[in-house]
Amino acid sequence: YQWRHTKETRLSKFNQTEIEAMLGSYTKVLFVRDPFQRLIATFLQGMGSSPSFSSFVQDVLDSVTRNTTSVAWKPLVSLCRPCLVQYDYVVMFGFQRQELGHLLRRAGLPVDSLLPKFTDTQVLWTYRWLSEQMFSELSVQQKKQLSRFYRWDLAAFPFSSSFLSD
Question: Gene Ontology terms, cellular component aspect (predicted)?
């Protein structure tokens, strides 16, 4: 299907037979991250124009009701369709070093020369601390709305320590 594949082509442009053939010929890897941590990262990167995290979250929740949700905080299930696409690997944020090492070994590639240095444990600790701080800024209603908005991500992936799971 190379003749039909361009940078802009989406899977939805192909018929079911073509989609199954293409997906069957690739190793499919999905990188996932706790939705609350994705919100924090988006806020810290300045992608929202809000002065506080609480007002940023309210902007996100308002965009949900207006159906203008940004890809930066859209639920992963709606973006990656894990119920439709059989991913070969799902890599959790915070476990990249061990997961990517495994993927490289499975592909027969040298792990040491290709794998960057990750500081997974420090990153996880930092995001845990940040999550506690940011979560405390939110109202009970905002927490409930976020949990509802990300309910399918929380059900599909093992984000057991997510603040939105509580």
Answer: Golgi membrane
